[in-house]
Amino acid sequence: MIKEHSLLLLTYSMSKILIIEDDVQVRDSVSLSLESVGYEVMEAATCQEGLQSHKQFGASVIISDVVSLEHEGGALLRQICQQSSDLPLITLMGTLSDDNAPSCSHPDMSLSAHTLQKPFTLDELLATVQSALTP
To answer: What is the pLDDT along the chain (135 residues), one digit of tens a residue?
Structure first.
């Protein structure tokens, strides 16, 4: 059991996660949660900032708010994904009414195989990140 837990922490500590989220409370919460289990985390408030951070940081996974994708250009995120074609993307979706919910046919949503609906639990976050990291 101890070896399994140590191996899991080693896997976490080798993984870098870039969080692109305009809401500072969500960004900080997700960041602290991931750091608490051993992930290395870089935060960005905008897609542009995320692109710059990714160049230096070399993330294993990107977690991005869907609003950031829609409002400032998933084109920047597409650029990141083109640079690293196997880079997983997890999108965070807010609690919106059905009338305001983004369409799954949104071009930038097709980049993401993993989605988390806000609010989400720590277990859901960790399971989604682990799933994104598992080939």
So the answer is: 344 444 444 445 578 999 999 899 999 999 999 999 999 999 999 888 888 887 788 889 999 887 766 665 566 666 666 666 678 889 888 765 444 444 333 344 445 678 899 899 999 999 999 999 887
- Does residue 7 form part of some domain? no
**Which structural domain range is residue 49 located in?**
15-133
Tokens representing 35? Answer: 């750091």
Residue appearing with tokens 């935060």: 43
For residue 31, tell me if it sits in a domain: yes
Cα dihedral 110, 116, 117, 118, rounded to 10, equals -130
